[in-house]
Amino acid sequence: MKNFIEELQWRGMVHDxxxxxxxxxxxxxxxxxxxxxxxxxxxxIGHLVTVMLLRHxxxxxxxxxxxxxxxxxxxxxxxxxxxxxxxxDEPTLRHNQEAxxxxxxxxxxxxxxxxxxAEMVNNYDWMKGYTFLDFTRDIGKHIxxxxxxxxxxxxxxxxxxxxxxxxxxxxxxxxxxxxxYLYLYEHKNCKLQMGGxxxxxxxxxxxxxxxxxxxxECFALTCPLITKADGGKFGKTEQGNVWIxxxxxxxxxxxxxxxxxxxxxxxxxIKIFTFLSxxxxxxxxxxxxxxxxxxxxxxxxxxxxxxxVHGKEEYExxxxxxxxxxxxxxxxxxRSLDEATFLSVFEGVPQFxxxxxxxxxxxxxLLAVKTSVFPSKGECRKMIQGGGLSLNKEKVALTDLQxxxxxxxxxxxxxxxxxxxxxYIIRIIH
Length: 430
Description:
By secondary structure, the chain is α/β, with parallel strands linked by helices. The protein contains 20 helices and 15 strands.
């Protein structure tokens, strides 16, 4: 059995760890949980760090619990936030929980008969019937306001520049999360809570509550918040979050995100987001450094993470799709792309919209009159004669070529390529 904390340490995944945690993990199979915010029906790659914690925990022989914060999602966690969060209703939370569980099955073993099979729980199940009076009597009396006020997440909001301050609802968040830990300690023998470093205050409130209410021993471990070398926010692009669900981020765009990270970030991320061994990673770093322009680390990272999240087939499709932009893709490759991937590959490319009545059309008329791909018919003709025009990755040899609906990709797109790098999309509205 691998040593869980040693495994995390060489991967750069330990920020804080409570004294005694290592000894507890060496003593017996231990149950640990991570809380997951259910505000969307998909995880994004910001969640992946704590999911990897759970996966490593299970691989090291321990039992992971994924807690979906149905109750805490209705309140909003003040940690790292400058404003109140939108509150969700129960049907939305239940839908999101099911979607997240489905995604987590790619990482965790929920179904086997092993003693360390993963479990998923929702804190709404034990909070929904808990009255305010019972909660304040049973839980509130054990934690002082002074203790709660000392937490960074509270201090920053109360003393910060924001005019909003902090509502009583958000102030109570750490007590509700603390009760989660107590509940799992009492009902699931859970002795370790893990999370991002911004959760240290909430986690230690839970361990303090357990200590004061039961006299029992429990532990805490956090991982660093992931940053980018240039100071930008990890997991964000111009389009927003990089999601696990292919409906929100195509496997191609997901693959491209990892492929385009800096050398410095690739070296950090490959330890955190893959299960490659220490020796494999050390060897990959040496290989990368001998020829950095070949981006060996980024290619390995993007392969490992895309295969883990979307499967090998989607990874291979993403690699093929990438070739199209660099002139290596064929017409057949292009036609094999689904619509979402096609639009993802050519995101930002200028688009023209025409009606189906505009076809059939002479190629020069289409590109120089009906659209402005070319400023003039003469320039379009010259480009065709010079062999510099392609439609759907096929060279155009005839200046009087007729374009009709049978030539369209997905029955609606025509990809125009001028020279090596200038692309345009003509979209036909039916």
